Amino acid sequence: MTKYVFVTGGVTSSLGKGIVSASLAKLLQEHGFKVSIQKFDPYINVDPGTLNPYEHGECYVTDDGAETDLDLGHYERFLNSPTSQANNVTTGRIYQTVINKERAGDYLGKTVQVIPHITDEIKRRITLLGDTEYDIIITELGGTVGDIESLPYLEALRQLRMELGDRDTISIHLTLIPYLSAAGELKTKPTQHSVKELLQAGIQPDILVCRTENPIGEDIRAKLALFCNVKKNCVIEAIDASSIYDVPILMHSEKLDVRVLQKLGLRSKKKVELKKWKVFLDHLKNPKRNVTIGLIGKYNELPDAYKSIYEAFVHAGAANLTKVNVVAVHSEDLEDRKMIHQTLSGLDGILIAPGFGERGIQGKILAVQYARERKIPFFGICLGMQCASVEFARNVLKIKDAASTEVRPNTKNPVIHMMAEQLRVKNKGGTMRLGAYPCALKVDSLSGKAYGKKYISERHRHRFEFNNKYLKVFEKKGMIISGVNPDRSLVEIIELRDHPWFVGVQFHPELKSTVERPHPLFVDFVKACVVHRQNV
Ligand code: GLN
């Protein structure tokens, strides 16, 4: 019988619900349970795929091709197991399902209403994962308690608690305990109000997780317990941590995992050791060297837009005992050639980020040229690989008007062009080449050696691809096509013969890097950056 843990947030957004949920899941996994996490987002977009990264940060893609919230990235990085379409659901998706059913006549003439039809669909989506192999499902509700748009979700959670009972469901409320420096005090009142909101929706939290900048003493714990009607040992301190990867350790020392198991009537199957996790933390905190890598993108104002790339560098840095300083470089700032040397000369490696549209492309292409000519380790991801192909065509093959048709639709030399099946696509949502596809590697290439195997699977999110018409000329002049899709011969990885480390990938390796399985290409790239730094 699957057990359910509901996580809500109060007082403000950005308290780190995703990290707390992922940390709890990690601990429960360590106790020997099969755990999955899902996120419900109360916005009306059917998924975040059409959202501008400035709005919502990175769009995380799963193996089965779902475009999802970036919290799913944390779930995978912590749990080291893949998520799917079922792990992220929005209000838009819920309503779309209900409206489609109504149009199909499935409600048999009934009036379709928020209660019970929308709440039933929410409950169906929550329990969908439970019907599979999991012992525990953690359901994180996006937004803050008190938001109008959260109400149907809270009602669904209330109903599920009634239907499944106290032993099989628990409710965790993540809240903020602000510190008023003028008064020199931590304040519990916002939490009291937030819990009142929850109670109004019929939900009594079992556990309070309290975000705080300062330790909460026994007095605060007792006060919260009294006013919020929870046991004192269920008031859990979540103090600010220097790294998100410290949070599982902090939650374990506060016994969040133990309280959850007690409430659910579950007995731990094994001792929590977190061996690999602790080795990773030790490497992370005791680096032997530094490298500085430029992340060339156009959404740099919001680091969340490249969340998985930053995290992949954390994992790969630890694997190399190296602190990776990632410097965000705005591609538009590189369009002035004078700026190129000034900005890029001190870097040990250059990564060109994924992206869409024309803005900032010229700067990215100039940055590729700089890395290629000066033999600086280079990693191009998706659009970054496409820019590397265009740069090679223009400056090595001397095809001056070479371009991607995404940027110049009428170019005579479309070295990057739209994928055939994309030509008939009209709708923007969920229509890219999405999710995991196989790729066959040249075993003696940089990538082949980094992965150490012939066949890999990586996740995609794009509409354009390398134009195979140009394959032969590229290869003749020193480009190595080291990875192709075995079914359709699509170019998936490019490398350069006369360069210490130059790799462009059409897929998104950053999405599959986890604490326990740092991504081989990121690990190898960081290694190449270390070597480059030693040699200059
Ligand atoms: N805009 C490019 C495409 O659609 C690259 C996409 C990406 O970087 N994810 O093919």
Question: Layout of helices and strands, plus pairs?
Answer:
Elements: E1 3-9, H1 17-30, E2 35-41, H2 53-56, E3 60-61, E4 67-68, H3 71-79, E5 88-90, H4 91-103, H5 114-130, E6 136-141, H6 151-164, E7 169-176, E8 179-180, E9 185-186, H7 189-200, E10 207-212, H8 218-228, E11 235-239, H9 247-253, H10 256-264, H11 275-285, E12 289-297, H12 307-319, E13 322-330, H13 337-344, E14 349-352, H14 361-373, E15 378-381, H15 383-395, E16 402-404, E17 413-418, E18 433-441, H16 446-451, E19 455-462, E20 464-466, H17 471-476, E21 479-484, E22 491-496, E23 502-505, H18 520-535
Parallel strand pairs: 1-6, 1-7, 2-5, 2-6, 7-10, 10-11, 12-13, 12-14, 14-15, 15-23, 16-17
Antiparallel strand pairs: 3-4, 8-9, 17-20, 18-19, 18-21, 21-22, 22-23
Bound molecules: glutamine.
The site of glutamine has 10 residues, from strand 19.
